[in-house]
Amino acid sequence: MSLQRKPYFALDAEMLGNLVTILKDFGYIIYGPVERDGAIVYDIIESAEQIPRGLFDEQSPGRYRLIKKDERRYFGYVVGPQSPKYVLYPPQHLLFKVRKDGRTFIPRPDGKKVAIFGLRPCDLKAVDILDDVLLKGPYKNNTYWTLRKDALFIAVNCIEPDNNCFCTSMNTGPFAKSGCDICITELLMDGKHVFILETMTDKGAEIVNRLGCRSATEEELDAVSRLMEEARNKIRKKLNVENLKEDLYKNLEHPRWNDVGNRCLTCGNCTLVCPTCFCSSVFDRSSLSMDVAERWALWDSCFSIDYSYIHGGAIRQSIMSRYRNWLMHKLATWVDQFGTFGCVGCGRCITWCPVGIDIVEEANRVRS
Amino acid sequence: MKAKAMLENSQTIEVEVMRRFSVESVVKETPDTYTLTLKPLDKKEYNFVPGQFNMLYAFGVGEAPISLSGDPDERHLVVHTIRVVGAVTNALVNVKKPGFIGLRGPFGSGWPLEKMKGKDVIIVAGGIGLAPLRPAIYYILKHRKEYGKFFFLYGARTPNDLLYKKELKEWKSRFDMDAFITVDAGDEKWTGNVGVVTTLFKRIKLDPDNTYALVCGPEIMMKYTVLELRNQGLTDDKIYLSMERNMKCGMRLCGRCQFGPYFVCKDGPVFSMDQINRFFGRREV
Questions:
Q1: Distance (Å, rounded) from C-alpha A87 to C-alpha A148?
Q2: Which of A138, A292, A333 sits opposite B260 (nearest CB)?
Q3: Where are the alpha helices (DSSP H) in A100-197?
């Protein structure tokens, strides 16, 4: 595979700080990867020095560890527990306020622009999917829209995918094809350490232009192509998505659901780490004087009993049915609802499941 | 927190998120069910299709999805029958002037009243499931000549649980509809049928190619009603059900009302049986 020449630039690794500075100059609040409590999470960064170096992650079902290796490397890890969902669709957000006389107020877009730095190709696709859900229906989520409409994405291609990654099956990675403004590939060869930047939007081009970096050389682009090929081959986890929806619909009563129901703890971790899970609950609260009331949205999980509660009891009482509902939504009903899978193959739900339930394995078993 | 501080601690703009309605009357239907007549404070018209629902908001307490149960031709009053099952419904039936009920809607799909023209109609209701069907009954009776035979089967747990008792009496006495009412358990004054609503099917004979069925009630009641309708030869494309799931937003955004591939708030609550037969009656879907 060879890359076309045009929009590829090369930035010396030591100059990464300039990119952060320029983003700040453009008025962005920058969310970047930082290390916290032994995991990589997104937080507001002020300089490139806050981005951890030399960290790699080991992931397997129910397991996540950061280890120190090659000190030069910036992006040796893949996805941590947080996805861009945390930034763009905050776990708690105000929907509206009501005065006692019934006049209603919604949050005003405050003009803040966010840039998310270091998100992965699977997460780009996840944002795309959230757009379908939260913006493209008859109604849209105001908070998401406010944050999303001016958001800038700087993606990082995955050259060291993890055990739980299956983006090649979902056709979302390991390299970004679209959906971001700038896409970065980290290149370490012959003592050289550069970032190959690909601009995908005008805004991205403007920023790279301001950086004033040179074009990437043929040699560098060849190296990127090689890394691409290698990364793809490193991904061993496979989910055959052909006829997947129909196969799952046909197997609503498969005994495997009971099997996984016996292992699932209904903790809801998978729904919290999932970059596309969007279900929310609402809660109302009022001032002590009862003059103003507020309504807030709060992330919810289909694994809670309350999620399906209607007067008289919950629809999904058994753990089996709640797991089935979740998996079926990701891999079957989502297709009917929005025309894509609700899964991007990031593997987070496998890593962060305390008992290591593997969505790929369960889907494959249910089909067989 | 002081009201002013609460409004100012984040920048907000005023928009009409919901319309405000005053409560004109409250009628007690059963020990726990009330019919509210609401009047828009903005004095604008309100239009809906039988089968649709509103999100009703009690100030500071919360919101609940409630189906419309009034006459669709009445554009200046909105009627809801509410069963008190929790904090929100309790607050809603206790709103007093000058308080208001916030209303968003109408949401969702309606009964196929146009499609049914020229055909026989059977309406089967269980308990409070009659509420979303009453607008359809009003409509059919008002346009009586445009429909064929009209059967109405209604079941409740006890005589005390029957909704709209005056209207039931009137419907039973009409010659242009066949109304049958039953209760699961009678009391000393009850002289009518006893048994679940499906036991009424032996009283009627449907013309399967020419009949549409509208059904609403508890899921288990709808399941057995569908079996009776199929027994009488009705095909799934002629059977319509009103489904219920937990709803928080009514706008297809909160995700809670999913039923198989459908969002009940947007794709339903009224579904044709052939739309949902793959999922309907399956345990815990």
A1: 9
A2: A333
A3: 121-134, 142-148, 167-170
Q: Which residues pair with A107 in a beta bridge?
A: B12
Angle ∠(B130,B133,B134) on CA atoms, nearest 5? 85
Of A35-49, A120-134, B7-21, the one with minimum mean pLDDT is: B7-21
> How far apart are alpha carbons B220 and B229 in whole angstroms?
14
The pLDDT value recorded for residue B1 is 46
Task: Give the 3-state secondary structure of residue A336.
Answer: helix
Contact call for B3 and A292, based on CB within 8 A: yes
State yes or no: pLDDT of B282 exceeds 90. Answer: no
Q: Are the beta carbons of B152 and B180 closer than 8 angstroms?
A: yes
Q: Using CB atoms, which residue from A98, A110, A133 is nearest to B102? A: A98
For residue B277, the distance in angstroms to the closest alpha carbon of chain A comes to 12
DSSP codes of every residue in B188-207:
TT--SEES-GGGGGGG----
Q: Per-residue pLDDT tens for A218-245?
A: 999 999 999 999 999 999 999 999 999 9
A6: confidence class by pLDDT, cuts 50, 70, 90: low
Query: Are A107 and B12 in contact (CB < 8 Å)?
Result: yes
B252–chain A nearest CA distance, Å: 8
* ipTM of the prediction: 0.90
Cβ contact A107–B11 (<8 Å): yes
- Cβ contact B3–A97 (<8 Å): no
* Burial profile A137-154: b = 16 or more Cβ within 10 angstroms, e = fewer: beebbbbbebbbeebbbb
